[in-house]
Structures are given as structure tokens and as C-alpha cells.
Specification:
The protein has 266 residues and is of the alpha+beta class. It is built from seven helices and 14 strands. It folds into two domains: 8-229, Nucleoside Triphosphate Pyrophosphohydrolase, CATH 3.90.79.10; 236-266, no CATH class.
């Protein structure tokens, strides 16, 4: 029997804003580089693996707000979510020390210009960036939304927490040109339509979360609906039938069903 690969802890953020001209939410998404070995070419939310540096930040509570009562694992998922989002989009969910307001777009742009490239290249640490810029991570802005674990039998597995967050005002974000080749603010409706027409390649968890998100009319409604809810972990189980391939997920996870067709027989 093949050894089951242990999933790597990972995080992602659905950065939200209200569409200016219509009653829809928009979410920041990126197209993964076609040479990336996981979800290559897919339209996804910014995110990635928890790393050692995220755990180093936990040791200094003055560097983050909103971590009260959380254990090290919970904190590491949230810190990774903010760091990966900054690396992949340039959007920084943080506050200047002593301030209750999120960092403004101008200041965030200065930190991005000074540190983002070196952080992505491993030439500096997020801990150092926070200390040098006087920033406090706004972990309290993150609302747990979903928890997906890659199925057993897959060679590269992730244990991923999805968080919702309102995008900081006027921080527009941009892909890095390396791990991702394009970025877009898009409504769940438009993203799903693009998946159906072939404009976008959407992974199964991304599709389910977009459908769920699309039921909310505003950012505040989405945050209020998810805040305090129990998040059910989802580890899809693949089965094959005479007509095709099916994925089974827990009905209580809240995705309007538990069995989904993901491919025809062949």
C-alpha cells in the first residue's frame, strides 16, 4: 500500500470589495503560472504554505492583533494568510503600531516597493519587514470561511484554511509575474461564467467557494454571515461510476450538496 502523504498547512484569503456599479461582491483572484506544479494555469485566490518564519512571528504578540485565545496552529494559518497575500498581490492587511486604522494605500505601496521582491526571493523575512516598517498584522480582519484538505492518494497535499477579509481601502493588488501571470477583481458570477466558457480554469474547491460567496450581496453581508459559524473540514473523496467521476464532500460543509460530478467516464 502506498504511503499517504501528510498534507502541508496552507492558507488563502478571499479579499473582498463591493462592486462600484452593481450590487455584487468582487474578489481578488490570480492566474497561477503554467509551470507551477500545483493548480498550474488556474484562477485562484492568493495564498500558500505556512512556513517557519510564520511561527517565528507568533513569539512576539506585539506584531499582530486579534490573536487572543488562539493556539500556535491557528495563529500560523492566519499569519501565513496575510504574508502570502502580501507576497502574491502586494496587498497588506496590517496597521501602523498604535493605530486602529488599516494601513493606507500609499504607505502600503512604499512597503511593497521596499520589501516585496526580497521577501518573495527569500532574501528577507516577514518578521524583519514588520519590524522595519512598524506594522502590526490585522489578524482580527480575517473571518474563517472554509477548510479544505487535499484527498488522500494525491502526491502533493495541502491542509488549507480559507479566510474572508474586506480589502483595505484603495489597495488594488497586482500579481508578481512569477508564481502568477495575471490578476483580476472579479465577481463570483463572472468567475463562474468564465469557468463554464473555458476562459478560466477553476479548481473544484475554488468553484464551490465562489458559488457560496456569490449568494452574498455585499462584503458586510458575507462577513456577517460567516462570522462565528462552525467551519466543517472538507476532504473530497473521489469515486468512479459507470457515467463518470464523482466527488463526495460532507453535506454539513454548506456547499448545497454532497456529491458532485467532476468528469465524464472515459
Amino acid at each position: 500500500m502506498a504511503e499517504v502523504v501528510k498534507p502541508r498547512p496552507a492558507s488563502t484569503i478571499l479579499l473582498l470589495r463591493d462592486a462600484a456599479a452593481r450590487q455584487e461582491i468582487e474578489v481578488f483572484m490570480m492566474v497561477r503560472h503554467y509551470e507551477i506544479d500545483f493548480n498550474s494555469g488556474a484562477l485562484v485566490f492568493p495564498g500558500g504554505s505556512v512556513d517557519k518564519g510564520d511561527n517565528d512571528i507568533i513569539a512576539d504578540p506585539s506584531l499582530y492583533s486579534g490573536g487572543e485565545g488562539m493556539d500556535a496552529a491557528e495563529l500560523s494559518f492566519r499569519i501565513a494568510a496575510v504574508r502570502e497575500t502580501f507576497e502574491e498581490s502586494g496587498i497588506l492587511l496590517a496597521r501602523p503600531k498604535g493605530s486602529k486604522a488599516l494601513i493606507d494605500a500609499g504607505h502600503a505601496g512604499e512597503i511593497e516597493a521596499a520589501h516585496r521582491a526580497e521577501l518573495c526571493e527569500g532574501k528577507t523575512s516577514f518578521l524583519k519587514v514588520l519590524n522595519e516598517s512598524g506594522m502590526v498584522l490585522a489578524l482580527d480582519e480575517l473571518v474563517p470561511y472554509a477548510h479544505w484538505i487535499t484527498p488522500e492518494g494525491v502526491p502533493k497535499r495541502f491542509d488549507t484554511w480559507f479566510f474572508l477579509a474586506a480589502a483595505p481601502p484603495d489597495q488594488l493588488g497586482a500579481h508578481d509575474g512569477k508564481e502568477s501571470t495575471d490578476s483580476i477583481w472579479v465577481s463570483p458570477r463572472e468567475a463562474l461564467e468564465g469557468g463554464e466558457t473555458g476562459r478560466f480554469k477553476l479548481p473544484f474547491p475554488t468553484t464551490r467557494n465562489l458559488i457560496k460567496l456569490g449568494k452574498q450581496a455585499s462584503v458586510q453581508a458575507a462577513l456577517d454571515d460567516s462570522r462565528g459559524k462552525n467551519v466543517v473540514a472538507v476532504t473530497p473523496i473521489l469515486t468512479r461510476t459507470a457515467t463518470g467521476r464523482m466527488l463526495r464532500i460532507p453535506l454539513e460543509a454548506g456547499y448545497d450538496g454532497d456529491v458532485f460530478e467532476v468528469g465524464a467516464a472515459g
